[in-house]
Amino acid sequence: MDEDLEQIIIPAARLRAGVRALGRRITRDYAERDLHLITILRGGLFFLTDLARAIALPLSLDCLGISSYAGQQQGTVRLTKDLDDSIQGRDVLIVEDIIDTGLTLAYIRRHLLLREPASLRICTLLDRPYRRIVDIPVDYVGFEIPDVFVVGYGLDWRGRYRNLDCIATLRPELYR
Questions:
Q1: Catalytic residue among 4, 34, 62, 100
Q2: Distance of alpha carbon 91 from alpha carbon 45, whole angstroms
Q3: Residue 101, class by beta-carbon neighbours within 10 Å (0-12 exposed, 13-18 middle, 19+ buried)?
Q4: 61-118 pLDDT, tens per residue?
Q5: 13-146 is classed in which CATH architecture?
Q6: What gap in Å lies between CA 142 and CA 75, rounded to an integer?
Q7: DSSP-assigned beta bridge partners for residue 72
Q8: Could you give the CA distance from residue 176 to residue 163 in angstroms, rounded to a whole number?
Q9: Catalytic site includes residue 91
């Protein structure tokens, strides 16, 4: 796989340190609260797992399945897997791998707010705020990244490269 990479944007050690720092902040902010983490399948699983381990509080977690751009029409979002547990009255933290335009996250946020959580906040590993189309309140940001296509740590290209322990770009000839 290494020969497919063009550049490592965030090395593994820096990634781990960033996740631990987020975990410490979340631990402070949610002390004495009923924290429930929700991520979106499949990309968010790597970040969710490591972040949950970095949070020094009892917590629960769940996953949503989302199909974005269904039917090739940008902006179309469809729920493919719903939550297993109720979030009514709970403090919910959406754990995202990357936020770009904000369209999918805005849909998820609206969908979850209808379920009356006590609070609903957002944590993202990677952020590209300059690509935002929809204004989304992001409470915790691991890293702001440039406008390049990235893989690793859950992010994929055609289902591959999720298992990289870093965030990297691919050689352009692989995806053009």
A1: 100
A2: 20
A3: middle
A4: 999 988 865 444 555 777 879 788 999 999 999 999 999 999 889 999 999 999 999 9
A5: 3-Layer(aba) Sandwich (3.40)
A6: 25
A7: none
A8: 22
A9: no
Residues in the chain: 176
Whether 142 and 18 have beta carbons less than 8 Å apart is answered as yes
* Beta strand pairing call for 35-41 and 77-81: unpaired
Q: What does the domain layout of the chain look like in residue ranges?
A: 13-146
Tokens representing residue 16 in the block: 């781990």
> Cα–Cα distances in Å, from 10 out to 36, 54, 56, 111, 165?
27, 19, 25, 32, 9
At 96, is the secondary structure helix, strand, or coil?
strand
| pLDDT band, residue 58 (cuts 50/70/90) | very high
Q: Give the type of residue at 108.
A: I
Query: 3-state DSSP call for residue 109?
Result: helix
CB 89 within 8 A of CB 116: yes
pTM for the predicted model, two decimal places: 0.91
Token pair belonging to 76 = 């179309």
